Amino acid sequence: MNFSELFKLSGLMGRFSPDGKCLASCVQHRLVVRDASSLQLRQLYTCLDQIQYIEWSSDSLFILCAMYKRGIVQVWSLEQPDWHCKIDEGSAGLVASCWSPDGRHILNTTEFHLRITVWSLCTKSVSYIKYPKACQQGVAFTKDGRYMALAERRDCKDFISIFVCSNWQLLRHFDTETQDLFGIEWAPNGCVLAAWDTCLEYKVLLYSLDGRLLSSYRAYEWPLGVKSIAWSPSSQFLAIGSFDEKVRILNHVTWKKITEFDHPASIASKKTIVYKEVEKSPTVETERLTFPPTRALASSLFSTQSKYDISEVPVSLQYVKPVADRANPKVGVGMLAFSADNCFLATKNDNIPNAVWIWDIRKLKLSVVLEQLCTIQCFQWDPCQPRLAVCTGSSRVYLWSPAGCVAVQVPGEGDFQIMSLSWHSSGDSLVLLSKDNFCVCYLEREEV
């Protein structure tokens, strides 16, 4: 593994372009675009205010920078650095901004979710979509970019509208059997739309492209319900993470539950491998000690190294009891992700914040548990092979594959706390993000 030097960063905003050629990052009001392989500076753009969100267009030719406080979006072109575009929503304000799949329209959501404004970069025309619902995941595009689903709220009822992205014509409009629609997400094949209700009502609804209700799933009635949802890349499975600390897997034929995965604090099965992260201080021979110590020796004396041990089962994991009288209790399965080959599912149960659970989907059983020293901040699968990258707010990055598990210290002075990470589309590098810095981790071909 090779690591780049540290570069300045604001707001955890570092993104590889979809074609993998560039890496965009933000420092306050500046947008910095680098070559993804050499990290040489390609473009530097200055925005009108501090950038709060960035997004690449699907063809990697444009970058959108949103400044929500000012109600402004600025768009920059990589091919024509002198060309620029400014969209000012004025008194309507701005709470969200995103690209359409064609990379030539921008969808801006105004304050109080009064409307979504669709701006065309080609014709400079403007379209308006009324009644967008203020929910966590209210806009969803199909993977092929042909259709957009929008969650709506009108007359105290929930609706979903499906639009054709080529001309923004309304294709279907139907009401949903939800109390308070919380989110929508298309299956990767674009044939089925999943919609789920507020956490107070356990309900997952599955709709076809023409608005027919294919199935409705409810696991139980009264306790808190759905917390997270993830489609498998093949669209064959829908994983539902719940507040009862379980993941339920639905199949794409009958939309019935085929299994459920529990997250107990004690692991007894001998077929499950538990990797436990342990820290050890390096030993230094007394003959090497000099005074004052060299810089390299001083840093090695006071730094701890991390490695994985395989624990003997049964293993008790660190369980945190949620505080019942506070909002948003740390309870239930809050993170879910399928591997690119559909073979594995990674989950995190918020009651056991230091563990990542890796399930074998082919055998429908728990395969591996990674027990970390710190709380899991983020994990993401390699887009090309079953390999999981994990970060915990420390200066280490952790990688798991069926071959084994490794903890790697990011070299350098100072405290580099990795809060988020993202894979390059080729799977041979990672961008590691902290609050103030980022670096790129290059994996050698043998590792890949």
TrEMBL record:
Pfam families attached to this UniProt entry: WD40
Origin superkingdom: Eukaryota
InterPro entries: Centrosome-WD_assoc, WD40/YVTN_repeat-like_dom_sf, WD40_repeat_dom_sf, WD40_rpt
GO cellular component: microtubule organizing center; MWP complex
Protein name as annotated: WRP73 protein
